[in-house]
Design a protein that fits this description.
Helix content is 42%, strand content 12%. A hairpin with a 2-residue loop joins β5 and β6. It is built from 13 helices and seven strands. With 303 residues, the protein is α/β, with parallel strands linked by helices. The longest helix is centred in the middle third of the chain and has 20 residues. The radius of gyration is 19 Å and the shape is globular. About 7% of the residues have low confidence. It has two domains: 159 residues, Rossmann fold (3-Layer(aba) Sandwich), CATH 3.40.50.620; 76 residues, no CATH class.
Length: 303
């Protein structure tokens, strides 16, 4: 780990005075929480938001990690599914979810006397289609890891430095990301996908997703796990079909982040993200590469 980069992160957090950390229980927010706790002892509050979009087990992980770090931890409910804009699942869906989340956390920060709300996006996230960045920008939420150019591998290194059990934890995105844009999202559909993934994790290792296309389930797993899926295909198909899916398929390209974004027209992706100065990175379909934003190149913490 670059000592200067780490010191810049500590300085950035100390300059904020006190922080409420949006804490999902994953490696990014976990590493940020650990660094913030070291930089601002006694001036950090971790908050985990729960809703039907939170994957199974994430709350337990968050509670365990907060106890391990000795950081006060609150759990709040969010209600993104109450909003028709979210339920209809447009390409901006993530914006409505993050707006709901950070509205709630901003109110809580004011109530608890926290000077800033911080969240754990890293610099690699800025190269993907992330409409939630618009809400983060609009609401003045800070993203120290992204602002200072910490990549995902560097965040995992931070987590290891602080002895966090989540250092090698696979990414666990919001369950709403399992549905193609335009397919309405319901509590029952979220639960069905969640149960399918819980089952698969009893058999398979590493990152995986069950993408829901109507009544068809498309399984994404790490390439090393594809032989196991084929070997267990009957057992897997029967278990997932019992949840209400009529067809089960295996994606031969394997697991990749944001695969539901692959069908979006490039203009849609760029049009949303350029509103907040975020340059969308490689397209899975075209392999195009865009230059990183100036703030990422500088590695400076936004003031």
């Amino acid at each position: 780990m670059d000592p200067e980069k780490l010191e810049n992160l500590n300085t950035c957090l100390r300059d904020l005075g006190s922080v409420l950390v949006a804490f999902s229980g994953g490696v990014d927010s976990g590493a940020l929480l650990a660094v913030a706790n070291a930089a601002l002892p006694g001036k950090v509050l971790a908050v985990t938001a729960v809703s039907p979009t939170l994957p199974a087990g994430e709350l337990d992980d968050a509670r365990h990690l907060a106890r391990h770090l000795g950081v006060p931890h609150l759990v709040v409910e969010t209600h993104e599914l109450d909003h028709p804009e979210f339920r209809s699942n447009p390409p901006r869906r993530c914006y409505y979810c993050k707006h709901e989340l950070f509205s709630r956390l901003s109110e809580l920060a004011a109530q608890e006397g926290m000077a800033a709300v911080v969240e754990g996006s890293n610099a690699d996230d800025l190269l993907d289609f992330r409409p939630g960045r618009l809400a983060i920008s609009q609401m003045g939420i800070r993203s120290p890891l992204a602002e200072l150019g910490f990549s995902k591998p560097e965040v995992r290194e931070l987590a290891r430095m602080h002895g966090l059990s989540v250092a090698s934890k696979p990414a666990a995105a919001c369950l709403a990301s399992r549905f193609p844009y335009g397919e309405p999202i319901t509590v029952d559909k979220l639960r069905r996908v969640e149960l399918a993934e819980v089952f698969l994790r009893t058999i398979l290792a590493g990152s995986l997703r069950v993408r829901s296309h109507g009544d068809s389930a498309r399984i994404e797993v790490e390439p090393s796990q594809i032989p196991m899926v084929i070997q267990e295909r009957t057992r897997i198909s029967q278990a997932i079909m019992r949840l209400g899916f009529t067809h089960v398929s295996l994606d031969l390209l394997g697991y990749r982040t944001g695969s539901m974004n692959e069908g979006l027209p490039r203009g849609t992706r760029d049009g949303v993200m350029e509103e907040v100065g975020v340059i969308v990175g490689p397209s899975s379909a075209t392999g195009e590469q865009r230059e990183p934003s100036p703030s990422r190149q500088r590695g400076q913490c936004r003031g």
